[in-house]
C-alpha cells in the first residue's frame, strides 16, 4: 500500500517541490497540502507529514503530528537543543512515532558535513561560509550551524587548540557569527540557491570543501528517503546521515 504524505508549508518554495516529488513517486500518495492558517487536524489521514515552514512554526507542527501518531520529516531550520528536547518529551508518549529533523537533504551537503568532521582535527584554522538566496529568513543557515557544531565537537574530542586569530579591533560582524568557536559567515545574494564552503588551514596549505545546490530538486532524493524510512525509525533522528548508512 502506498505511503500517504501530507505537506505542511505546501505553498512555499520547498513545499511546492515536495508536492510535485510525492505526486511523481509511484509508492507515495499526496494526502493533503497545508499552509499558514490551515487546520492540520488529522493531516488528511497521512502516515507521514513533511514540514518545510518557518522556524517559528515548525515545533508546533511537529508536536501536532506526534500527538496524532503521524511520523514527521522536517526540513525547516532554526532548531535548538531546547526545541529538540520538547520533541523527545512528546515522543515519550508516542514511542512508535518517528521524527526526522535534517537541516539539509541534499546528499552532497550531508557528505560535506561528514568530510568536514573528518578533516576537523588535522587543521589549525577553520571557518564556514554559507551563501543563499536573499529570500531566506534565517541566518546563518541551519546547515552551516550544524557543520560548525560537528567540526567544533571533533576538534574538542581531539584536543585541538582554538583557531588562531589576532583580530584586536574590527567592525561588528566582520568576523562572522561564533558557533561553538567556529566563525560562520552568511552571504545573501540573488542568483544563489544554497551553497556552503568549509575552509581549513594549516601552515603552508588549505583545504576547501564546497557544496552547491543549484536547484531545489537537489533536496528531493533525501526528502523521499526520509519519507520512505521514517516509519521504521521511531524516536527523534537529527540529520539524514544515518538514513543514508553514513
Ligand atoms: N532541510 C533542507 O534540505 C532545506 C532545504 C531548503 C530549505 N530549507 C528550510 O525550509 C524552510 C522553508 O524554506 P522555503 O524556502 O520553502 O520557505 P518559503 O518561505 O518559501 O515557504 C514556507 C512556507 O511555510 C508557510 N507557513 C508559514 N507558517 C506556517 C504554519 N504555521 N503552518 C503551515 N505553513 C506555514 C508559508 O506560508 C510558506 O508557504 C526554511 O527553514 C529553510 O531554511 C531546508
Ligand atoms: O533555502 C533555504 O532556506 C535553505 N535552508 C537550509 C539551511 O538553512 O541550511 C538548507 C539549504 C536551503
UniProtKB/TrEMBL annotation:
Annotated CDD domains: DHDPR_N (cd02274)
Single GO MF annotation: oxidoreductase activity, acting on CH or CH2 groups, NAD or NADP as acceptor
Ranges of residues in domain Dihydrodipicolinate reductase N-terminal: 3-105
PROSITE patterns for this protein: DAPB (PS01298)
BP GO terms, sorted: diaminopimelate biosynthetic process; lysine biosynthetic process via diaminopimelate
A Gene Ontology cellular-component term: cytosol
InterPro entries in the record: DapB_C, DapB_N, DapB_N_CS, DHDPR_bac, NAD(P)-bd_dom_sf
One Pfam entry name: DapB_C
Record flagged with keyword DNA-binding: no
Enzyme Commission code: 1.17.1.8
Subcellular location per the Swiss-Prot or TrEMBL entry: Cytoplasm
Dihydrodipicolinate reductase C-terminal domain ranges (all copies): 108-242
Positions with a binding annotation for NADP(+): 33
Reaction(s) catalysed by this chain's protein: (S)-2,3,4,5-tetrahydrodipicolinate + NADP(+) + H2O = (2S,4S)-4-hydroxy-2,3,4,5-tetrahydrodipicolinate + NADPH + H(+); (S)-2,3,4,5-tetrahydrodipicolinate + NAD(+) + H2O = (2S,4S)-4-hydroxy-2,3,4,5-tetrahydrodipicolinate + NADH + H(+)
Active site: 132 (proton donor/acceptor), 136 (proton donor)
Residues where (S)-2,3,4,5-tetrahydrodipicolinate binds: 133, 142-143
HAMAP family documented for this protein: DapB
Subunit structure comment from the entry: Homotetramer.
Free-text function comment from the UniProt entry: Catalyzes the conversion of 4-hydroxy-tetrahydrodipicolinate (HTPA) to tetrahydrodipicolinate.
Protein family according to the UniProt entry: Belongs to the DapB family.
UniProt name for this protein: 4-hydroxy-tetrahydrodipicolinate reductase
